[in-house]
From TrEMBL:
It is an enzyme of class 1 (oxidoreductase). NAD(+) binds at residues 126, 188, 211. One of its GO terms (molecular function) is zinc ion binding. It holds the Pfam family Histidinol_dh. Catalyzes the sequential NAD-dependent oxidations of L-histidinol to L-histidinaldehyde and then to L-histidine. This is Histidinol dehydrogenase. Belongs to the histidinol dehydrogenase family.
Amino acid sequence: MLQPINKNDYQSLSSYLKSRSQEISSDILVTVSNILKDVREQGDVACKKYTKQFDGIEMDTWKVSEEELDEAISHCDPFFMESMEKAKKNIEYFHQAQVAQSYILQEEKGVYLGQRVIPLSSVGIYVPGGRAQYPSSVLMNAIPAAVAGVKRIVMVTPPNKEGKINPNIAFAAKLAGVTDIYKIGGAQAIAALAYGTETIPSVDKICGPGNIFVAAAKKLVYGKVDIDMIAGPSEILVVADDHANPAYAAADLLSQAEHDPMASPILLATSQTKIDEINAELKVQSAQLPKKEIVEQSLKNYGKSILCDSISECIEIANEIAPEHLELMVEDPMSYLAQVVNAGSVFMGYYTCESIGDYFGGTNHVLPTNGTARFSSALGVDSFVKRSCFLHYSKEALDAYGQYIIKMAQEENLDGHANAVKVRVQSWEKK
């Protein structure tokens, strides 16, 4: 099921995986650009037009009232609600540890300097509607924003054919601390969040997954607002030692393969026998999954295995691939963790399947894909704050150090910079 790759050819595998990045066609970019322009110029009128065109429904109002929210939540399964409440506690617990502190440093001669950590004022979260509903993503986006101290957390999500919000999405939003909910989707929702309309105020940052039109819209409004990332197809890399349970490994590989035909399940192991056992399990388990066709396409196109000499060699190759999800299905995984430098999130041991992180464990499931874990991080509290520096120099300090500043400015031929120091020093030298 998994196509074998020579361990010396893993770099071509890494390039092959990066080629999966969804290039947004010029036609889509033009279409989305026109939608953005319409919403920027016509506001709600354009939003109503596109909602009718794409969602097949006429909307008189976008905002979800408290009464409508509670009515939707009344249709939720009680055990689902209990599960989400427990997940929320775990996600909050993890992200509260990420909160950074402002600081101030004192030096001699009346110099002090420091940094302030300031939450963004407002954040918009896009949540897909229709058949794809991901209440877990609401928690993963909204909770870190709330922990960071964001005051206004806005959610946009497409209405169903009756003009209503999905009950599970409604509950997730209320649980996670979303302050405003608007029933609007697609590129027009991204435009509304970026530019604002008569009834939908603009935000500072937009997060959340969506289709290719939503991705294109996020790409085009970046700069007017910040965005989280343009995510690529999902990926998982499992490192399995000789004691790894083949059924566990196969199940975890399939958990990502079911996302998308372009998802990549990769296995690195130290035993050909183990690879063969896992392949046999993949055949049995994939036949039983409802999304069998998607799974089989993913395995055929991007399912790979690499036989390595040691676990350390497996991790060395994994670092080159920089997977979104990395499972260390080995004995004593903590002893190998320091060797991992490129991975969106690491799942350690035989019992920590990636699904735990997707829903319940507390770590964030919004992760860098397509090798971008080499330089980027999971969504977290830091994603929803900005840092502002401050500096104070006394007269005594400027008198002592001004000559150095003047010299450095002059060497860069920036005499105006040098003069800003000179006029101060000279003013008191004349007295």
